[in-house]
């Protein structure tokens, strides 16, 4: 970095002189170096990097606006208004994520409603300048308007990835322009149940299957999450009889209405479909309510490293030794299933990340006993427990998971529970090698509504002292006056931490 300090100048400090460096133009180094550095930075660090000088900002504009994510109604209005005033920035956007009326992401803050037609109209105006757009994601109450889809299809020649979520009215239009794209490499569609949790009583549009089977030969990622009555799924066989030579990620989540049995067709075609796609590395399947066998040959799924689904299908995987990531949160693990689950997990010798939902806290220990190589564990408890069991759980994590670096815990919440920071310190006491702890509490009497979230990341300062970087937010109970809260601070660990579950009291909280 000598190019930054070409000519030191003198300064005075307590009667002496010291060289005072002068930051000069970034032209002394090849601009490719700064672009390469920017590619490794997180968004907040990238922003700070770009503020070093006006030259840096101009140089890093393509990286700053590579991904534009508008995760709330307010963000949609303000972000799109800024792009409308400065349309020259649109040329840098490669990925545009728009989520109007998405209250889940704004939690615990409330997000006012926005007219999705107005949001779509602004994006339609900007389409002329989105010449480098490669991915468009829309998550709203309804699917994106036909006018917007037509504009993106005609004016964005680089667009190959579409993620669409909506149809909150409960009906999927058969004339939606979302299904008229061509040469897509990634397509995702999520259609939730109707406003009264009613399942759609219309056929899946034929235009969807036409697009996937006739105009998506280069498809690499496919995700379909549909809630339908079982007798309206017969057209799914068109998809399962198609071969996508480059398909590497498949998410098929078909939920049938209660009282309807999953049909023998077309789900029986799922096994041959998977066998015909040897490049699959990520697979998620949730045929509900019945779990049908896959009947996979030994030559199938030879590159699969990530799976989301049920343990019955895990037991059928022909190459379990390759699996590194597993998500079993779709259904809670109960006591009668423990023997079969333990047998299935014991075959996953390369497993590094596990997500699991258990009906009782005591059921977790038999699971982690057979998954000793885990570095990431996320657990959802469908029950509440106190500090006594937490200490036991923390000791079990240290005993069975010596390589664990990230731990996430979801549990029920009571007013008598301690603070989230106390829970994090208790877990960290037995597991000092942990780098991240994430906690989420929900109110069990309010249909599992979220109550509090906490994130605790281990950091080390320039003096070598460890501290926790803490971010907590949530909703206060009525007994505490109600309202929402959010706080960020650093928690310095000045005392030694032993493996008996105790933390010395010499700690200090450093608020930003």
Main sheet attributes: strand count, strand direction, barrel closure = 18 strands, mixed
Tally of DSSP helical segments: 16
Look at the helices and sheets and give the structural class.
alpha/beta
Residue stretches low in confidence (pLDDT < 50, at least 5 long) are: 1-24, 495-512
List its salient traits.
LRR_dom_sf; F-box domain-containing protein; single chain; two-stranded antiparallel ribbon; about 500 residues; 18-stranded mixed beta sheet
Q: Would you kindly provide a written description of the structure presented here, covering whatever features stand out?
A:
The structure is a single chain. Residues 1-24 and 495-512 have low confidence and may be disordered. Helix content is 26%, strand content 25%. The chain has an 18-stranded mixed sheet. It is α/β, with parallel strands linked by helices. The protein has a domain at 23-64. This is F-box domain-containing protein. It comes from Mycena sanguinolenta. InterPro entries: LRR_dom_sf (IPR032675).
Topology record:
Elements: E1 9-13, E2 16-20, H1 31-38, H2 43-50, H3 54-64, E3 67-70, H4 73-85, E4 95-98, H5 103-106, H6 116-126, E5 135-139, H7 146-155, E6 161-165, E7 186-191, H8 206-214, E8 221-228, H9 236-240, E9 249-256, H10 264-267, H11 270-275, E10 282-285, E11 306-308, H12 311-314, E12 325-333, H13 338-345, E13 353-358, H14 364-368, E14 376-381, H15 387-400, E15 406-412, H16 420-430, E16 436-443, E17 449-460, E18 466-475, E19 484-493, E20 507-511
Parallel strand pairs: 3-4, 4-5, 5-6, 6-7, 7-8, 8-9, 9-10, 10-11, 11-12, 12-13, 13-14, 14-15, 15-16
Antiparallel strand pairs: 1-2, 16-17, 17-18, 18-19, 19-20
InterPro entries: LRR_dom_sf
Organism: Mycena sanguinolenta
Protein name: F-box domain-containing protein
